[in-house]
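Our collaborator T.R. sent over the components below with a one-line note: 'Predict the complex.' Nothing else. No constraints on interfaces, no templates requested, no preferences about which chain binds where. So this is a plain run: every listed entity goes in together, and whatever single assembly comes back becomes the starting point for the next discussion.
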Amino acid sequence: MCDTERIVDMKFDRKPIPVTDAVTKVMEYARFGGTEEVSINECENRILAEDITASHPIPPFHKSPYDGFALKAEDTKEAGSDNPVTFHVIEQVGAGHRASRPIESGEAVRIMTGAEIPEGADCVAMFEICQTQEENGKSYMTIKRQMEEGQNVIEKGSETSHGDVLVEKGTNINPGVKALLATFGYPTVKVGRRPVVGLFATGTELLDVDEKLQPGKIRNSNAYMIAAQIERAGGIVKYYGKLEDDFDTCYQAVTNAFAEVDMLITTGGVSVGDFDLMPEIYEKLEAQVLFNKIAMRPGSVTTVAEKDGKLLFGLSGNPSACYVGFELYTFPVIQRYSGVAKPYHRKIAAILGKDFPKPNPFTRFVRGYIHYEEGKVLVSPAGMDKSAVVTTLANTDALIMLPGGTRGFAAGNAVQAILLEDSTGQATFE
Amino acid sequence: MCDTERIVDMKFDRKPIPVTDAVTKVMEYARFGGTEEVSINECENRILAEDITASHPIPPFHKSPYDGFALKAEDTKEAGSDNPVTFHVIEQVGAGHRASRPIESGEAVRIMTGAEIPEGADCVAMFEICQTQEENGKSYMTIKRQMEEGQNVIEKGSETSHGDVLVEKGTNINPGVKALLATFGYPTVKVGRRPVVGLFATGTELLDVDEKLQPGKIRNSNAYMIAAQIERAGGIVKYYGKLEDDFDTCYQAVTNAFAEVDMLITTGGVSVGDFDLMPEIYEKLEAQVLFNKIAMRPGSVTTVAEKDGKLLFGLSGNPSACYVGFELYTFPVIQRYSGVAKPYHRKIAAILGKDFPKPNPFTRFVRGYIHYEEGKVLVSPAGMDKSAVVTTLANTDALIMLPGGTRGFAAGNAVQAILLEDSTGQATFE
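Returned assembly:
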């Protein structure tokens, strides 16, 4: 038996581990990347690294929700359609301004939406139910309805009390969170750092995107796809190009890149083929291989190694396997680094929308898309699911997780779906 | 009756129109913003402005999905556990390389995953089922199983034929679409231009985010929130700051800004209050007001005007109304400008997760969040739904659309939910 064969056989010894075990092993080395301060103008989709606490009550004062007249409700207790009650309008107050003095019985203040209720007033009569008139340079207002104390008044602190934690750290900053940051005076906000994720493609067969197709070759699509997945997960892509076939050049390139990044992804080169250099690179790097075979399809050869607390993800060169491997193992590590409190993709119980008759001895992750019907959530395969089919990925927003077994699955079966474009997440993989 | 009153009364004349009519009116003026060419490295979440067509079949040649030996299946027809068949291994072919000559009967080629099947071969035996040996400097391979023609061969064009439209224009570029662009050799791609959306806040009560809280005042949160919503929708924010109260200054600022942007948003100033300048600004601009009152809550005062084919969105100053008004009326206009084929938020039939007992004469949009239970999709109110409550928005990823009527709604009721963080969209509002 020649040397190459011995290596191949050695590689055949790989022991597949269950998906959940693989995720657990990887996440043991996932770490928080620390914080940085960013301007509120650049905080979208960053992860809060501090709780947002109400630095004042909301509203900070008794506030009018409408344009109208602030008055004492008691003054209207005799009002009726036959008995108009007239008030002296002593001043008007716009939002952002305050009344100059408390009102007395029989007085009203013309008040705008969002303005502070003058002292002494306890309700607001909307313009629509009031008649106004001027007499001798004085303004009057007449009302024919009874008002209740507190009517059309938003009480100070009724929405939020001072000191309430409104959003917890670890939360994605969406437009609503950003509004809160502005409300409570955060011109800058502490967020989790985004990891720099290094990326190499491997494969002699790979042409660059601007090269003409050549016999036996295909264009490199994985690197572009993974770059987009890294961005979607919140990482910063550092693309190092294609690894050469030569071991020493390859080893050196990986070593240099690994020093510059927070984690490193390679696509391809992890199988048992003669040209799959990654296993030997891990060995020479003295990286600890956490696993090199997973009981799943596609992506069984996905390999993750660790060195000095940093992770190296050896994703398959097969586009679908690469895609799935990233979302299962790399995504939560990026999320954890960024400080996301719930770093795993949200996994839901959905209804299978189409038959998937092919049984599989291993857990299968079928690329799918979520759709809805009358209160039900369904997930259907996005297209052909041969593991090499790149075209299916365009429609994918979920992975259908089908347990291994001897039977296929039928439309209507309960299945688990992993949501890929949902920012909710969950705290555990299961 | 004084002048101000007359204006107010005139404004009271506003006729509420149904939400659907309002959307239709706005979308009559929504237009596609044209295309631009971007690098594949910067195409994430842009909108395809050209179909992606397969410029070659996929795979472009008969391909091996595994490492193994390519051979003629016919040569194995006598093979069995008692009858090993031996092949002369004439060469090895890695992915990206080609065999130097067609194989003959009795010959095999060692082949790597992704490599082209040599001419003359019609199946691939995986390494795992083959024994190899060297004799007199020649390589041999022995197999004890029968192979079938086509076994472990991915046929040329089996995934995609030359000329197939794989992704239609108007689609959001996700990681899978990006992979396709790379596969078919798009170093640049034609995408829809992103609109520049101008933004003004109005309101004397508004403090900047870095100002200390003052009596009667609140910090400006709408501008920051809307900026994040514009970004989420795919627009480019151009923030002009706070409008002054003075009409002439205000009018000039709006006129100048309007000339620089593709559409303009103002928040606040559209009500019937004395300080609500927007209606008069529209008038002086000679803009056509499409509507200034909508039969909905919150956001009934949402005003949209048009001038020279450009839209001015007068959103409410109330945070929730502002948020909802943007998502219903501005979002689809931004999407249409960017070239999205399905410019409206996806609307689904969901199950109400919690009671919402308060009846409302008008259609109500309650901020909510989507959750799932055993194949069901539920939507629950995100918190208190007083129209001024900003805190609720942080948890919002959907709007619950409750029709107007005399009764409230109970958990378990079928309701419509508008998904705010879903890139699927739909072609019509209904």
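Summary for T.R.: Residues 347-419 of chain A form a domain with the Beta-clip fold (CATH 2.40.340.10).
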